[in-house]
Amino acid sequence: MNRMYGNKLHILIFLLPALLLFCGILIAPIGASFYYSLFEWNGMSADKTFVGLANYKEVFTSIDIGFMKALRNSLLLALLSVFLQLPLALLLALTLGKKVKGERVFLSVYFMPVLISTVVIGQLWLKIYNPEYGILNVFLRAIGLEKWTRIWLGTKETALGAVFVPTLWQYVGYHMLLLYAGVKSVPGELREAAMLDGATDGQVNRFIVLPYIKPIIRISVIFAVTGSLKSFDMIYVLTNGGPLRSTQVPSTLMIEMLFLRNRYGMGSTIAVLLIVLCFLFALIISALFKQED
Amino acid sequence: MNNNSKAARIAIYAGLILWLLINLFPVYWMFTFSLKNNAEIFGQNVVGLPQHWLWSNYTSALKTGKMGIYFLNSVIVAFSTILITLVAAVMATYALSRLIWKRRKAMNKFFMLGLTIPIHASIVPVYVTLSRMHMLNTYWALIIPYAAFSLSMAILVCTGFMNEIPFDLDEAACIDGCSVWGIFLRIIVPLMRPAVATVGIYTFLQCWNELMFANIFISKTALKTLPVGVQALSGQYTTEWGPIGAALVLATFPTLLVYVFLSKRIQESFIAGAIKG
């Protein structure tokens, strides 16, 4: 048995399809992206000009490219996610976790938007935000708040917020589900013991449940932050970075560099920075949570 | 005291129901305006049920808007991806959790890197390679990258399920004279059915909803998948909302239909994917 299961050739054959896919599409391209980022290249011609780290210098300093602005926007989205979306998700998870009637129905409906394509949700919210006929402005006019109506996606000041709301709407359910699974895994004896000692619901949540689900909160925070850094679909559909770049994020900027300006080196530079930032933030958040223990 | 807790309960349910309505309303609105004409959508009847059920919106979306083609493309891409992902993942998991070799733990960790690598990493190199191999505007241009990016999650889920299969079964089969392939195909694969469902659902949703790759690697209308198709269609019908609504419903109802029947399993697959990773 051991000899049969230790056969090197079998091991290789079983691993091969996965290894090819994984290395070919995920691992090798990381190296290739870094390599391209060292060149000025229009993607078509055979000759690329080696420029060293010039793209990196340009991306951080050039106002014309506006990477820092894009990064700031995505970090702002990350902050909104962590401090608005996650608390809401946590509140829902804690409430559903203590046996309310219709728990399954609430849970299933809250999670539903996660399954709908972001393009569909974006298209739907385009209609909701439509300045003339969208239900948001129609509603505001109907209740006499005419002066609150805005061109929500077309105004610099409101666009980023208007992009965030559908994102929140779509992903609260996702974080809620993860946190709910955590709340449900708290051993009943822990709760009961605390209740016997006279703890209120709030105290049980604060001193028993929250510490218990901390690893899941960490995962949620990491997903919320890296998800914001990578955000693309919703913004592409709603504003494509505009107006005046007020909703530009690194991903939309990357696509602009690649396919509008034909700057493949610069596009790759942004891709590399995104990979690094995602890993970096995941590490930082993990470290922050560890430090707290 | 009693009054207080009763008031608190009412407040809790009011909050829960309010959020329920906020979740349902946009979807309800989408379904209703997919069956209305502009006059109703734009004023006469903004939020009510349609007065005249305008099924012709669906015909326009399917024919003029080409939603039928996009739908079929999405189905082809999604199911091919699921098949490739499953074959590669179940085979790799067998090597990683059954076969005996020194660096299998390290190799497992290596595959788990894929849970953190964003798809941005691949976009330029894969695009350049596909274009050199004249493979842009083919189904493979989407199927292969989708399968690669679904792999880590699939291996993660498969490992969980495979570890629950008792090793005695392998040994018994070995004593009965089964080869490695015999054990794999006759013992392991049939017992992996629950993993197949979980991985299948998760991968399906990823493919069905993916926009960035689909947008860049495919420009031929005949090969577009739903997310890109919906984008194209909404550009085509800028002033008529009904057909856009119909397209949105067409792109969404398969997922929601599956969700109605498999809500628990779908939720579990998302929990498994996030928490074990």
CATH topology of chain B: MetI-like fold
Q: Any guess at the CATH architecture of chain B?
A: Orthogonal Bundle
Principal-axes shape call of chain B? globular
Helicity range of chain B: over 70%
- Oligomeric nature of the chains: heterodimer
Major β-sheet annotation of chain B: none
**Mean pLDDT across all amino acids of chain A:** 92
What separation lies between the terminal Cα atoms of chain B? Answer: 45 Å
The number of helical segments of chain B is 13
- The CATH homologous superfamily name of chain B equals MetI-like
What's the SSE pattern of chain A? HHEEHHHHHHHHHHHH
Q: What's the number of extended β-strand segments of chain B?
A: 0
CATH class of the largest domain in chain A: Mainly Alpha
What is the H-and-E element order of chain B?
A: HHHHHHHHHHHHH
Topology diagram in text:
The complex is a heterodimer of chains A (293) and B (277).
Chain A: H1 2-5, H2 8-36, E1 39-40, E2 49-50, H3 54-61, H4 67-97, H5 103-115, H6 118-129, H7 135-142, H8 156-184, H9 188-196, H10 201-212, H11 214-230, H12 233-238, H13 250-260, H14 264-292
Antiparallel strand pairs in A: 1-2
Chain B: H1 2-33, H2 38-44, H3 56-62, H4 67-97, H5 104-112, H6 120-132, H7 140-162, H8 167-175, H9 180-191, H10 193-209, H11 212-217, H12 226-236, H13 241-275
What is the compact description of this entry?
By secondary structure, chain A is mainly alpha-helical. Chain A has 14 helices and two strands. Chain A has helices spanning 2-5, 8-36, 54-61, 67-97, 103-115, 118-129, 135-142, 156-184, 188-196, 201-212, 214-230, 233-238, 250-260, 264-292, and strands at 39-40, 49-50.
